[in-house]
Amino acid sequence: MDREERLEKIYDKALEMFVANGYDQTALSQIAKELGLTKAGLYHYFSSKEDLLFFVHERHMNRVFNPILEAAQKISDPEERIVYFIRNYTLKAMTRDASARVLVHETNNLKTENRQKITVLWRNGLDLIRNTLSEMEDQGKIEKINKNFAAFALLGMCSWTFYWFDYERQESGEELADTYVRVFLKGILKAS
Predict the structure, then answer these.
(1) pTM of the entire structure?
(2) How is domain 1-46 classified at the CATH fold level?
């Protein structure tokens, strides 16, 4: 097995165990055992448990969050772009499984420089939303609004999902994504 294949197995197993048991309750020795490695063998790839957490978090962002951003950035119409982002962020990152809950919660366990790297990835999403809202305002599609607050509100609304979503009911993810789009873009009051 080459290095990348081994790292892929480590990523999968560590993420699975962090989700199932929590980061603090998952020892490196448990992860190593599940992978058929010694603890020293795991240290060959990662210098610490925090180093492993950062690897898992960064890889997860690069696999789940960044592709959503990259696809959204290619959409020229800002309304279509924001709808795409809300739907895909909700469906692919927040309702797929509990991994986002664990990783976001455990960000505080990262060293400052690693936490800052993860923050840059999240900021890319915030920038996409803020810039999209600016375009929509310039086109007269939305009222003048504080774009920072609105962008944080959108990310917060979608990101909070992992605290209450029932992952056993995947079929409700589509309705949830549609509801988020409606609430964010049109509100909940009937048109007068």
Answers:
(1) 0.90
(2) Arc Repressor Mutant, subunit A (1.10.10)
CATH code, residues 49-186: 1.10.357.10
Question: Which amino acid appears at position 149 of this protein?
Answer: F
Q: Name the residue among 105, 93, 122 with its Cα closest to residue 18.
A: 105
Q: Is residue 146's pLDDT more than 90?
A: yes
pLDDT in tens, 109-139: 899 999 999 999 999 999 999 999 999 999 9
Share of the chain above pLDDT 70, in %: 99
C-alpha distances (whole Å) from 142 to each of 119, 132, 149, 188 are 28, 11, 14, 15
Assess whether the region 1-46 and the region 49-186 belong to the same CATH fold.
Answer: no
C-alpha closest to that of 85 among 32, 132, 36: 132
Tokens of 149: 């607050």
Q: Where do the structural domains in the chain lie, given as residue ranges?
A: 1-46, 49-186
Whole-angstrom CA distances from 84 to 35, 62, 157, 171 are: 37, 18, 15, 19
What pLDDT score was predicted for residue 189?
A: 86
